[in-house]
């Protein structure tokens, strides 16, 4: 999916303070969360995924073909923006953790105050300034500003999971609603951006030096002349799409604010060993299962990020499906959404490691097929449906397996509790950093291959580069990631043992309290 970092990614200092509870207080804290509150909470996760899918699929082609930036400058924007996004996570988390509790809680003020500025900066990302000089600075500035403000929204929102209830079952239930809405958000973002922009595609520009067939030149010229859409129309379409998404962003934030009450949560345990962020990181690095899990998913995530970032260009130029690429992208997201429940059933029955191998490997033959055959719209749609199923597995499995690594850490370190967020935040940090590197390198490679903005036909070197970016490189990363997974030690038997030992630890802790 567009953003696979949708689960809890808040720093350790955001966790609720530890305090001993009386029996009456425990009862009060275990009251259920209403279905309405859970739905309002879930809707609050939609803006992150809607904007993420729009940026992930369309920002690169927007910068290259609409803003008409050189690929070198576009690579700087994409790389710097993603890396900046990764760096702001722990920074914002640190600031939020030191925010005072207000009448509306600690997290809600951040969510409410960041929303209008995030919406404005998001809209300006898709506005092409009327001057040639300074365009790169414009896009880089507003992209980084939006990523910062989006983090000011999403870090407190993720941490809000811990503050809607002290009951783990209630939190899990709310998270399930949230994941469902977030998946739908990726589809909505792709649909809005793709369908609005797809209806206003400006005609390409003929560069006959790239064509060996005069008949192709005449065909492309006739198509261009038949179209009355101009580049200005395409620019306005991108602005319209960003405006619609901005309105949805505000509505979702309003629903979250009005429908969710933040609780000043507490825990039913004694004061635990307090570790600094750096000390927690050192312990985390020594936990082998977590390191192997993160490294494995880092490479598989890189594979799908490369494909996501370059697939629109590949469809437009290499396969020549300029008028259909937005529909193909939408099919991928819809297929992924529909197959998530199937993967959930699969991993429940056959185990999570088996699901990793089957789910991730499922995409490999289709990645190879799409570059080995001649352009065919029907086959491309078949590949999109099949690839969507694998994208769903890549979206679901990390957030299904990370809790197992956290539980394993708790069992091995019973006196070092309360550091769950470190596991999530560093996984998100590394995946975001890797995303920035992959997008930057892939766009830079197009620069060296001789990419020409809005050309009807690209040089053979560009088409070869796009094939490598959506097939050969992702397949290599998938194989490398799965090789790392072979040494991942947490199987179903170990998961069961850890669950039993954790229940025993929780029971002992409860007896000490009461």
Automatic annotation (TrEMBL):
Xref: SUPFAM superfamilies: MFS general substrate transporter
Catalytic activity: a 1-acyl-sn-glycero-3-phosphoethanolamine(in) + Na(+)(in) = a 1-acyl-sn-glycero-3-phosphoethanolamine(out) + Na(+)(out); 1-(4Z,7Z,10Z,13Z,16Z,19Z-docosahexaenoyl)-sn-glycero-3-phosphocholine(in) + Na(+)(in) = 1-(4Z,7Z,10Z,13Z,16Z,19Z-docosahexaenoyl)-sn-glycero-3-phosphocholine(out) + Na(+)(out); a 1-acyl-sn-glycero-3-phosphocholine(in) + Na(+)(in) = a 1-acyl-sn-glycero-3-phosphocholine(out) + Na(+)(out); 1-(9Z-octadecenoyl)-sn-glycero-3-phosphocholine(in) + Na(+)(in) = 1-(9Z-octadecenoyl)-sn-glycero-3-phosphocholine(out) + Na(+)(out)
Pfam family membership, one: MFS_2
Alphabetically ordered keywords of this record: Cell membrane, Disulfide bond, Endoplasmic reticulum, Glycoprotein, Lipid transport, Membrane, Symport, Transmembrane, Transmembrane helix, Transport
GO molecular function: fatty acid transmembrane transporter activity; lysophospholipid:sodium symporter activity
Protein's membrane topology: Multi-pass membrane protein
Name this polypeptide is given: Sodium-dependent lysophosphatidylcholine symporter 1
Native source species: Ameiurus melas
Lineage: Eukaryota, Metazoa, Chordata, Craniata, Vertebrata
């Amino acid at each position: 999916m567009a953003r696979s970092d949708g689960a809890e990614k808040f720093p350790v200092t955001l966790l609720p303070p530890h305090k001993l509870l009386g029996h009456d207080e425990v009862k009060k804290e275990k009251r259920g969360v209403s279905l309405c509150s859970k739905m309002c909470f879930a809707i609050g996760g939609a803006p992150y995924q809607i904007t993420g899918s729009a940026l992930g699929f369309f920002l690169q082609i927007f910068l290259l073909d609409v803003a008409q930036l050189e690929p070198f400058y576009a690579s700087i924007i994409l790389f710097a923006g993603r890396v900046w996004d990764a760096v702001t996570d722990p920074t914002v988390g640190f600031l939020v953790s030191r925010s005072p509790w207000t009448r509306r809680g600690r997290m809600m003020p951040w969510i409410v105050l960041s929303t209008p500025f995030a919406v404005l900066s998001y809209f300006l990302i898709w506005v092409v300034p009327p001057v040639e000089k300074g365009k790169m600075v414009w896009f880089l500035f507003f992209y980084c500003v939006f990523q910062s403000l989006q983090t000011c929204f999403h870090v407190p929102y993720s941490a809000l999971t811990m503050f809607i209830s002290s009951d783990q079952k209630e939190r899990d239930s709310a998270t399930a609603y949230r994941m469902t809405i977030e998946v739908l958000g990726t589809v909505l973002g792709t649909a809005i951006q793709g369908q609005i922009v797809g209806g206003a595609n400006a005609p390409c520009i003929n560069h006959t030096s790239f064509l060996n067939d005069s008949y192709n030149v005449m065909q492309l010229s006739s198509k261009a002349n038949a179209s009355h859409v101009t580049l200005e129309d395409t620019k306005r379409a991108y602005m319209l799409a960003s405006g619609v998404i901005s309105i949805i962003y505000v509505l979702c934030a309003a629903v979250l604010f009005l429908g969710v009450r933040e609780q000043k949560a507490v825990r039913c345990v004694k004061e635990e060993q307090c570790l600094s962020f750096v000390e927690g990181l050192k312990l985390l690095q020594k936990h082998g299962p977590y390191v192997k899990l993160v490294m494995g998913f880092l490479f598989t995530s890189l594979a799908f990020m490369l494909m996501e970032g370059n697939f629109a260009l590949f469809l437009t130029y290499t396969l020549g499906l300029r008028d259909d690429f937005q529909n193909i992208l939408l099919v991928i997201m819809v297929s992924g959404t529909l197959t998530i429940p199937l993967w959930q059933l699969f991993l429940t029955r056959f185990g999570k490691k088996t699901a990793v191998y089957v789910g991730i490997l499922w995409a490999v033959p289709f990645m190879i097929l799409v570059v080995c055959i001649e352009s065919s719209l029907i086959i491309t749609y078949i590949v999109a449906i099949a690839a969507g199923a694998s994208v769903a597995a890549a979206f679901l499995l990390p957030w299904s397996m990370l809790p197992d690594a956290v539980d394993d850490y708790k069992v091995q370190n019973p006196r070092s509790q309360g550091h769950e967020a470190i596991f999530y935040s560093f996984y998100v940090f590394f995946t975001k950093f890797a995303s920035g590197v992959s997008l930057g390198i892939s766009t830079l490679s197009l620069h060296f291959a001789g990419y020409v903005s809005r050309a009807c036909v690209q040089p053979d070197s560009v088409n070869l580069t796009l094939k490598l970016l959506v097939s050969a490189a992702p397949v290599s990363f998938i194989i490398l990631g799965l090789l790392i997974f072979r040494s991942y030690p947490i199987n179903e038997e170990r998961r069961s043992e850890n669950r039993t030992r954790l229940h025993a630890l929780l029971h002992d802790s409860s007896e000490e309290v009461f």
